[in-house]
Amino acid sequence: MMHNMDGSVWAGLAGTLVGTTIGGGLSIWASVVTQNRQTKTTRDLRIEEKAEASANEAITQLYVIKQRAHDFPQERGGWEAWQKELGRLAAEMEPAVLRLRDDALRERIEEVLGYMDMIYELTDYTAHGGSLMLPSEVCRYGLDCLGAAVRNRPLPAPSQALLKAREIDAFEQERMAIVREEADRYASLEPGESSP
């Protein structure tokens, strides 16, 4: 047999029911938020691990290039093969460089690798700081950049070797522009006309 309940009992039951519903909803919401955070943290950790693996792979490959750049041939006859090998090693490293997440790091390493195609210029232009050791020193700077990235440190300022390589590159670009200009001027001459 039911007794008549007064309004305060009904209000208490309704409050308990509403409180239980809100509490349950908040508990479910908190579980979903926690699970999403854990999923994001796990995903971020995997991305970070892949980035570190890419940087470590790039370090290994650039170290090989540095060693090969240091072992320059004693006779000029072997220079062409030496330069080709450095170019091949630099090209093989490109996939690892593309996986580097940091844009500034990737640009610096691409710059370092680009100089491996300028072996003659880096070694011959002594007036601009070129030397037999410059290609290896440029690679050393690239290794310093990769090492800083692995340790979550800022990238180092351009080294003296990199600045010398940039200067040689700018000189070579200017020289090539003059050569092209001369060739264009020569090509535009009428037959029998001589260059001024």
UniProtKB/TrEMBL annotation:
Protein name according to UniProt: Uncharacterized protein
Source organism of this protein record: Streptomyces brevispora
Lineage: Bacteria, Bacillati, Actinomycetota, Actinomycetes, Kitasatosporales
